[in-house]
Write a structure and sequence with these properties.
- The chain is built from 9 helices and 20 strands.
- By secondary structure, the protein is an alpha+beta fold.
- Strands 11-12-13-14-15-18-19-20 form an 8-stranded antiparallel barrel.
- Helix 3 (77-102) packs antiparallel against helix 4.
- The radius of gyration is 49 Å and the shape is globular.
- The two termini are 56 Å apart.
């Protein structure tokens, strides 16, 4: 039965990851088969099946299981939480298996562990689907361009936390108009003077008049209206009125002279100012201290011990970066057919891939054979850097006979002892391996 197509995309839109000098995608089918043989069925069903087109620049990803397809973002929170738990449990088992393989004595097992450790990397949440309720990852072994691998594999799948409530700090503050105090309120009397006739005045009941004694001035009539008004003074106006009273009465309490209205000035004693004296200068003497002169013998420089120069035999098929051609800026020494020996192993066969370069005037092609006689080809070019290093690069990943793409290392060589080229191959920022050029047909 035909599998369900989940996603298609261009290989140039993403960046492949790998380990041990190889890309994960170049061994994707072998990785899935190895996991199946190890009875890791849950992990196998989580990794989509890649199928590269005839041109080798696009890939289709098919679901390994059957069922209704639902994008990750389209699923509700409960379904995503359940699927995320399945992914995290599966990833723990995969990383444990990867570490176990890397501790093996077999090179093939170590390479498989290095690839499996990076296999669960994927560009983002739009590359994860739910098929029959099970999570399936497409474009596994890839990350977005100019991005590095994530430390937390499924960090982009976690649900966003709910937003925190916004607290209005000015909710309980009263209106500014309610706090204003008018001058009319401040002018009202602070305290009402208690009167003995207040109750009688309010009830309009008066006692009989008493006889007035001589030389005693009658009490002024009581203003009942003012007395009632004083009782209605709000308490909050008391501090404001007190400030106004203090401001008005303060100057009246200043001391005044009995003969003049001007304020009395206090007598101030003058302050004596002394000129600072300069520190005493040291006394000068007519004689200088003398010391006995001493003669030091010159230190003899020890010459480094000369070691005998050991001249190693140069292989006839070695790549020699001739000094005359290097100074002239030419790379004629690179013309020909070369076997490139790389210190990496295939995860399935355990053998190193066969790599041959054919170069003429800084242009040529590379032919790579790996796995079960899978042949890959790529165009290459070479040149000299300003620092005197030889660079050999490809114009992209090699296209293979099984529809996959295989990474070609970026080679850097420098002249070593007797001008023999010392070369390294870089697959990515973290994978650099030594390699050696050997001339084909050299005698």
């Amino acid at each position: 039965m035909a599998k369900t197509l989940l996603r298609s995309g261009s290989l140039d839109d993403f960046q492949s990851v790998g380990g041990g000098g190889q890309a994960v995608f170049a061994s994707a089918l072998q990785i899935r088969e190895t996991l199946r043989l190890r009875k890791q069925q849950t992990l196998v069903e989580c990794l989509a099946i890649p199928q590269v087109n005839d041109d080798g620049d696009r890939v289709d990803w098919y679901s390994p299981v059957e069922g209704d397809v639902l994008a990750w973002k389209a699923a509700d929170e409960e379904v995503r939480e359940r699927a995320l738990s399945q992914l995290e449990m599966m990833a723990d088992g995969a990383l444990s298996l990867a570490r176990k393989c890397q501790q093996s004595d077999r090179t093939a097992q170590q390479l498989f562990g290095a690839l499996l450790e990076k296999a669960l990397q994927f560009p983002g949440d739009n590359h994860v689907f739910l098929v029959g309720g099970k999570p399936v990852i497409t474009f596994w072994g890839f990350v977005n361009l100019n991005e590095s691998t994530r430390e937390e594999l499924f960090g982009c799948l976690h649900l966003a936390p709910p937003p925190e409530p916004v607290i209005d700090l000015y909710e309980d503050i009263p209106d500014e108009d309610a706090l204003k105090v008018t001058f009319s309120q401040a002018d009202e009397p602070l305290l009402a003077i208690p009167l003995t006739t207040t109750v009688a005045a309010e009830s309009h009941e008066f006692s009989e008049p008493q006889p007035i004694e001589e030389n005693v001035e009658p009490e002024p009539p009581v203003d009942v209206a003012a007395q009632k008004a004083s009782r209605r003074i709000p308490l909050w106006s008391l501090p404001v009125a007190a400030v106004l009273v203090a401001a008005i009465a303060g100057p009246l309490l200043w001391p005044r002279s009995t003969t003049s209205s001007e304020p009395v000035l206090a007598h101030v004693e003058p302050i004596a100012v002394t000129k600072p004296t300069a520190p005493a200068l040291p006394e000068l003497t007519h004689s200088l201290p003398l010391h006995l002169a001493s003669v030091k013998e010159p230190v003899k420089e020890e010459k480094p011990e000369e070691k005998p120069v050991i001249i190693a035999a140069i292989p006839k098929d070695a790549l020699l970066m001739e000094a005359d051609q290097m100074r002239a800026g030419t790379t004629k020494f690179l013309n020909g057919t070369w076997r490139v020996l790389v210190d990496v192993k295939d995860p399935v066969t355990g053998k190193a891939p066969s790599l041959r370069y054919q170069i003429l005037n800084n242009k040529g092609n590379a032919r790579l054979v790996h796995g079960d006689n899978v042949v890959c080809k790529a165009e290459i070019f070479s040149g000299l850097h300003q620092n005197g290093e030889l660079l050999v690069k490809s114009r992209g990943n090699a296209r293979c006979s099984d529809g996959s793409r295989y990474p070609v290392p970026e080679i850097t060589c420098k002249a070593g002892v007797s001008d023999v080229a010392e070369c390294t191959g870089r697959y990515d920022a973290n994978t650099v391996v030594p390699l050696t050029f050997r001339k084909v047909g050299a005698r």
